[in-house]
Design goal:
CATH superfamily of the largest domain: Aldehyde ferredoxin oxidoreductase, N-terminal domain
Number of domains: 3
Shape: globular
Largest sheet: 6 strands, mixed
CATH topology of the largest domain: Aldehyde Ferredoxin Oxidoreductase,  A, domain 1
Number of helices: 25
Structural class: alpha+beta
CATH architecture of the largest domain: 4-Layer Sandwich
Strand order of the largest sheet: 2-1-6-3-4-5
CATH class of the largest domain: Alpha Beta
Length: about 625
């Protein structure tokens, strides 16, 4: 087998044991790596209904056939588990030295099982695995934890860690690495904390297996330079991802005041030009020549690394337009190991609930100091922070008074920083994302607002969402590799099958990846249905408030406009039809069998009704 090591490292935290296992080439070809591997393994190894924060859950660290090889933006790792926030499969894509080190240690997959009796960290050095007490690290933030472990094992050691949010099982705690990298929005950090696992450290010395190592090195190094040159020419890294803020504000797609507004006259204070001007450093993932991590000084003088999602959700969404104060909130989230998107979404829900009379409190939109106090309370689960630490959906259900209507989430995961009250295609992308509302699944908004009818519900938008989900799940989440060269610089998609073929000796085309993407997405949705057997199509709706005319903007380019439920429902039907799912959004047996998932269809049928086929409403498209 070339391209993959073929090895799984299985670690039992309860028994303090480990063993090396092998996976087959058939498994590798069918699931590629990254998300594909993690999804199939968790489907097979987790019993339906297990407690995500119990010892039965498993934490996976997964790579793929080109992960860690010097080539454009290949320093990515997938962390995965059953989510305590959504109750189904969840993962995160994180840039880390662990990508290179775990491959050099001789593994593509690490599975951590059970629960340690006391806080500890695990050290992997090639074939050697040791367990180390971490009481001295427990209670520390991710910045201090990273520094302690780097000082001990070196700056290039692969390190994943959690902060106090993970320790306290905040349901949107993330896994952190290299100070500025984070992944696992749906609570992967909480799963790590539930296992009393403070960190994972990996150091490897072996060669990464390649079908043609000379060709891979020549192609990879050459393409790294090409992408770097493209970035310099386009000047994308000057503003990085935050360049999109001014565009979202102009297009009335900015989250303002818990999505009640979509534009704000003070948004310019946080835009890409302002953040770039305030830059004190720039950071990136391993093997990256288009670094997007712009660091600025926050109110307290800390170096805070930001991107658009942080800015959008902790700035305009909370009506905070002081750049340094927004950066302070971002720094706190990073240090506590807490997702910035869900933190911003949950805090904005809380301010809204107080405004609407559903909750009692003194937190208001625009109050940055109070937001910082609440952020700390969430991470430590103190006072009202204990309620908010469960995310906006669970919190709203406890508070009641119809406050769930304006919890801006799908499947329990808060929306990223795009206001879709009049952007049906992106609303569909959020609604149908199988891990909850995440922009990484299908970022259709630029296509929709530049090249399609705004407010339109045509089948073309459903097709575009499906196409993007296919590409992202199979290529960017499963190789895995960063999507920015493709999205931001126009790096041709054909490069990725070529990389795969050089690494593995295969002869794949883009169509092979798209079919694998369909297989992955069918099993992702089957996983949701297995854990939520009473599922129906409403699980794929965007936030209900998007359909409410009372939340429509009073002025601006979308004044008086909002999503229409009947038209969205028709758009959703197009989506199901293209995918071959029934009217509830459950993959049919015929579809699953056609994708090589016959056994999985039988397993799903034991807990959830599975239709034999669906009635098509038109041609299925590509």
């Amino acid at each position: 087998m070339k391209g993959w090591t073929g090895n799984i490292l299985r670690i039992d935290l309860t028994k303090k044991t480990h063993r090396k296992e092998q996976f087959t080439e058939e498994f590798a070809r069918k699931w590629i790596g990254g998300r594909g591997f993690a999804l199939k393994l968790l489907w097979d190894e987790l019993k339906p209904g297990i407690d995500p924060l119990g010892p039965e859950n498993k934490l996976l660290v997964v790579l793929g056939p080109i992960a860690g090889v010097p080539m454009p933006n290949s320093g990515k790792t997938i962390v995965a588990a059953k989510s305590p926030l959504t109750g189904t499969y969840a993962d995160g894509n994180i840039g880390s030295h662990i990508t290179i080190q775990l491959r050099k240690a001789g593994y593509d997959i690490m599975i951590l099982e059970g629960r340690s009796a006391k806080p500890e960290y695990v050290l992997v050095e090639d074939d050697k695995v040791t367990f180390h007490p971490a009481e001295d690290l427990w209670g520390k933030g991710t910045f201090d934890t990273q520094k302690v472990l780097e000082d001990k094992y070196g700056r290039t050691a692969g390190i994943l860690s959690i902060g106090q949010a993970g320790e306290n099982k905040v349901l949107f705690a993330v896994v952190r690495s290299m100070e500025g990298r984070a992944g696992g929005r749906p609570g992967i950090g909480a799963v790590m904390g539930s296992k009393n696992l403070k960190a994972i450290v990996v150091k490897g010395t072996k060669e990464i297996p390649m079908a043609d190592p000379k060709e891979m090195k020549a192609r990879g190094v050459g393409d790294l330079k090409k992408v770097g040159d493209m970035d310099k020419k386009s000047k994308w890294s000057v503003q990085g991802t935050n360049a999109v803020l001014s565009w979202c504000n102009e297009m009335a797609a900015l989250p303002v005041r818990n999505h009640r507004l979509s534009q704000h006259p003070e948004a310019w204070k946080l835009d890409g030009q302002r953040t770039s001007s305030a830059r004190v450093a720039t950071y990136g993932c391993p093997n990256c020549t288009m670094r997007c991590g712009i660091a600025i000084k926050d109110k307290e003088g800390h170096e805070s690394e930001i991107d658009y999602e942080n800015v959008g959700m902790l700035g305009p969404n909370l009506e905070i337009f002081d750049l340094k104060q927004m950066a302070s909130l971002n720094y706190m989230c990073d240090d506590f190991g807490m997702d910035t998107i869900s933190t911003g979404g949950t805090l904005s829900w809380y301010a809204d609930a107080i405004d609407q009379g559903a909750a009692v409190g003194d937190f208001k939109f625009g109050d940055a100091e109070a937001a910082k106090v609440l952020t700390r309370k969430i991470a430590l689960r103190e006072g009202v922070g204990d309620l908010l630490a469960d995310g906006s959906l669970k919190a709203s259900r406890k508070v009641g008074h119809h406050s769930e209507a304006y919890a801006i989430q799908c499947k329990g995961l808060e929306l990223s920083a795009y206001n879709c009250k009049y952007v049906p295609g992106q609303a569909l992308a959020f609604g149908t994302s199988a891990i909850g509302a995440h922009h990484k699944e299908a970022w259709i908004i630029t296509y929709e607002l530049k090249f399609s009818e705004r407010g339109g519900y045509g089948r073309d938008k459903a097709q575009k969402v499906v196409d993007l989900q296919r590409i992202r799940s199979s290529i960017f989440e499963s190789l895995p590799i960063c999507r920015f060269p493709w999205i931001e610089l126009g790096w041709d998609l054909k490069n990725y099958p070529e990389y795969y073929n050089i690494a593995t000796g295969a002869n794949w085309t883009l169509d092979d990846f798209l079919r694998t993407g369909d297989r992955i997405y069918a099993l992702l949705k089957a996983f949701w249905c297995r854990e939520h057997p009473d599922t129906d199509r409403t699980q794929d709706y965007p936030p209900r408030v998007y359909f409410d005319p009372r939340i429509a903007d009073k002025e601006g380019i979308i004044a008086g406009k909002h999503l229409e439920l009947d038209k969205y429902d028709e758009l959703l039907s197009h989506y199901y039809d293209i995918r071959g799912w029934d009217k509830r959004g459950v993959p049919t047996r015929k579809t699953m069998v056609s994708l090589g998932l016959e056994k999985e269809a039988d397993q799903l049928a034991k807990v959830c009704k599975v239709s034999e086929d669906c009635v098509p409403i038109g041609n299925r498209g590509v």
